[in-house]
Specification:
The protein is of the alpha/beta class. The protein is built from 14 helices and five strands. The model is unreliable at 320-331 (pLDDT under 50).
C-alpha cells in the first residue's frame, strides 16, 4: 500500500528524543523511514507544503508555539499529512484535545518502542489514505446529485431551495448543529436515486402510469445504496430512504407510521412537498404560498408529522423560513 520509503517530519526541541525515535525507526525492518527534524514550529507549515512528507511526529511541549496550537493552525489547510502527537506527559486532556483537533494518534514518549511507533505510523497513513478515498467518493456523489437535478428540467434549483428550507426549519425546531448539518446533506442527496429512473418518467408532462410509479418509487432505495460509502451514511441513509413515508403509513418504501419514520426524514417530507407545491410544473402552475401552507395543514396527522407542520407554518409566517425569504444555513 505504501511507497518504499516513508518520509517523516519530527517537530521536537529535544535532540535526545529525536535520536531515540530515529533509532526506533531504524530497528523496524519492515519499512524504511526517512526522518527530518525541526526544533520549533517556525517554518514547519512551509516545510509541510514543500517537503513531500508523509507524516508528522509533533511534540506537544515546544518553545514558542506549542504542538497543540500548531495543530489547530493546520486545521482546514489542504495537503497536510497525518499528525501523531507525542509528549513527555501522560495528560489525557492533551490527548483528547489533540484528537479533537485532527491528530491521528497520540502517545506519551515513554510508552513507545520501535514496533509501537512503526505500527502507529502505518495505521495513521492507512486511515489518512482511507479518508482521502472517502472524500473523493463524497465529491463524486455530490456531483452526481447535481447531475440528477439537471436531468429533470421540472425541478430547477430544487436542491438549493430544499437545503434552505430544511435547515431553516431545523433552526425553528431548535435542532442541534449536527442535525442541521445532516439536514443540509440530506436535502442535497434525498433524490439522488432518481439517477436510476428513466428520464422519460422524470420529464413526463402528465400523470404517471402504475408501472411508471413503481419505477419512480424505487429511487429512495437506489439513493440509499448510492450514498452507502459516505462517512455519514448511517445518519443520512434513513433520510433518503424514508422521505416519502406518510405519517399514517400510506407512504413508501417501508410504509412506516408516525414516529417510526426517522425525524429528519419527516422534516424533508414537509419541505419537499412545500417546494413541489410552490414550484411550476409542466402540467400546472405553482400554487400560491398561502395555499401550499393550507395544504400542509390539511395533511398534518395523515401525510405529515403534525408537530413539524405546525412549526414549519409558524416559521414561514414568523421567522422567514419561506424559500422567498433569507434564511440561515448553518447558524
Amino acid at each position: 500500500m505504501f511507497k518504499h520509503s516513508i518520509r517523516l517530519l519530527m517537530i521536537d526541541d529535544n535532540p535526545m528524543d529525536v535520536d531515540i525515535v530515529r533509532q526506533m525507526l531504524r530497528q523496524y525492518r519492515r519499512a524504511d523511514f526517512e526522518l527530518e527534524c525541526l526544533h520549533t514550529t517556525e517554518g514547519a507549515a512551509d516545510a509541510l507544503r514543500d517537503g513531500g512528507f508523509d507524516l508528522v511526529l509533533l511534540d506537544y511541549n515546544l518553545p514558542g508555539e506549542d504542538g497543540l496550537s500548531f495543530l489547530k493552525r493546520l486545521a482546514g489547510k489542504t495537503g497536510v499529512p497525518p499528525v501523531i502527537m507525542l509528549t513527555g506527559d501522560g495528560d489525557e486532556r492533551v490527548a483528547a484535545d489533540a484528537m479533537r483537533n485532527g491528530a491521528y494518534d497520540y502517545f506519551p514518549k515513554r510508552s513507545i518502542n520501535s514496533v509501537v511507533l512503526a505500527r502507529a505510523v502505518h495505521q495513521a497513513l492507512e486511515k489518512f489514505l482511507l479518508d482521502q478515498q472517502l472524500e473523493s467518493t463524497e465529491q463524486v456523489i455530490f456531483t452526481l446529485a447535481a447531475a440528477v437535478e439537471a436531468k429533470d428540467p421540472t425541478t430547477g434549483e430544487h436542491l438549493q431551495r430544499m437545503t434552505k428550507l430544511a435547515v431553516g426549519l431545523g433552526h425553528a425546531m431548535e435542532l442541534h448543529q449536527q442535525e442541521l448539518l445532516l439536514l443540509h446533506y440530506g436535502a442535497i442527496l434525498h433524490d439522488i436515486g432518481k439517477v436510476g429512473v428513466s428520464e422519460a418518467i422524470l420529464c413526463k408532462p402528465g400523470p404517471l402510469t402504475d408501472d411508471e410509479w413503481r419505477e419512480m418509487r424505487t429511487h429512495p432505495v437506489i439513493g440509499e445504496k448510492i450514498c452507502a460509502p459516505l462517512r455519514f451514511a448511517k445518519d443520512v441513509g434513513p433520510m433518503i430512504r424514508h422521505h416519502h413515508e406518510r405519517w399514517d403509513g400510506g407512504g413508501y418504501v417501508d410504509a412506516l407510521t408516525g414516529e417510526d419514520i426517522p425525524k429528519l426524514a419527516r422534516v424533508l417530507s414537509v419541505v419537499d412537498s412545500f417546494d413541489a407545491m410552490t414550484s411550476d410544473r409542466p402540467y400546472r402552475a405553482a400554487l400560491p404560498r398561502e395555499e401550499a401552507l393550507a395544504r400542509l395543514r390539511a395533511g398534518a396527522g395523515t401525510q405529515f408529522d403534525p408537530d413539524i407542520v405546525e412549526t414549519f407554518v409558524n416559521a414561514c409566517e414568523e421567522t422567514n423560513v419561506s424559500r422567498n425569504k433569507k434564511v440561515r444555513i448553518l447558524g
